[in-house]
């Protein structure tokens, strides 16, 4: 097995172009497990930990956060919890402190597991994945990045450079259910992002379909009903029946399977419950913001 260790982004892209089958490694929390259990034996590993710009984040001219592919979950929690609250919530549920100190959103995207914890909040926030090769760079909406179970839209010579994520303009929530309370792969997960300025709602579903996905009909339904009732302006209580119906529509957007972690029926039920709760919590946060401003 070849081990490639570039120290610049240009060298990393050149190495990937020369050996397209080289597997990128940042935290190594997925790849090294597969190698240790002999589930994967790549011809080459491309270590990206020595490329400094991948571990940086900043703000773009249009107000988005440009999150380098090598920024760890621990740093997201510590440095971006106010600007990316949904992603920070998801980051807190990832593995152990040791895993959070090594794991990255870029690695989560590259693995493209339907159960990846960062996927639902990225989808709910309309995130965009910035990918690059020696041929140039391009942007892929997160909703189009996942092409199948553990498959993504990267060309063989491309690497993930960063994720472009709009800063939160309203409350966000992330829910995850597993077979135990910590250090667990999600049986199902859900994220919601309120966007009051646009009178819109973003959603993201994890571990309940072949790929992470949104629930556009549920989001449009909830945003439309809130608008029709004048609740964006009044910030009145969210009717229980509305939250319940939203949960049902989120459930209808999923297409889970039975596996060792849970049945399809359980996943559907849990999604309905999580979506109802997440919507209620997010709306209560929205109302609290108004009371604090007053």
How would you describe what is shown here?
Helix 11 packs across helix 12. Helix content is 39%, strand content 22%. It has a five-stranded antiparallel beta sheet with strand order 4-5-10-6-7. It has a three-stranded parallel beta sheet with strand order 1-3-2, with helices on one face. The chain is globular and about 60 Å long. With 294 residues, the chain is α+β, with helices and mostly antiparallel strands.
Helix vs. strand class: alpha+beta
Helix content: 25-40%
* Order of strands in the sheet with most strands: 4-5-10-6-7
What composes the largest sheet? Answer: 5 strands, antiparallel
List keywords for this structure.
294 residues, alpha+beta, single chain, 12 helices, three-stranded parallel β-sheet, globular, 39% helix, five-stranded antiparallel β-sheet
């Amino acid at each position: 097995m070849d081990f490639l260790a570039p120290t610049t982004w240009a060298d990393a892209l050149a190495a990937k172009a020369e050996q397209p089958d080289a597997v990128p490694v940042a935290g190594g929390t997925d790849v090294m497990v597969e190698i240790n259990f002999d589930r994967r034996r790549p011809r080459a590993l491309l270590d990206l930990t020595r490329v400094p710009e991948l571990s940086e984040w900043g703000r773009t001219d249009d107000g988005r956060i440009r999150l380098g592919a090598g920024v760890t979950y621990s740093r997201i929690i510590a440095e971006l919890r106010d600007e990316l609250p949904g992603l920070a919530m998801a980051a807190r549920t990832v593995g152990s402190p040791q895993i959070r100190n090594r794991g990255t959103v870029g690695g989560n995207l590259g693995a493209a597991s339907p159960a990846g914890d960062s996927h639902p909040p990225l989808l709910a926030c309309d995130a965009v994945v910035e990918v690059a090769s020696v041929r140039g760079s391009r942007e892929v909406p997160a909703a189009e990045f996942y092409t199948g179970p553990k498959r993504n839209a990267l060309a063989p010579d491309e690497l993930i450079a960063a994720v472009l994520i709009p800063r939160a303009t309203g409350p966000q929530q992330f829910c995850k259910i597993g077979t135990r309370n910590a250090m667990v792969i999600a049986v199902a997960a859900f994220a919601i992002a309120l966007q009051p300025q646009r009178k819109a709602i973003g959603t993201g579903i994890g571990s309940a379909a072949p790929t992470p996905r949104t629930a556009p009909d549920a989001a449009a339904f909830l945003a439309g009903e809130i608008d029709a009732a004048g609740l964006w302006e009044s910030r009145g209580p969210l009717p229980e029946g509305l939250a319940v119906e939203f949960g049902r529509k989120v459930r209808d957007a999923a297409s889970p399977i039975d596996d060792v972690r849970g049945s399809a029926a359980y996943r559907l039920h849990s999604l309905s419950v999580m979506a109802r709760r997440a919507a209620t919590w997010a709306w209560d946060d929205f109302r609290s913001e108004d009371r604090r401003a007053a």
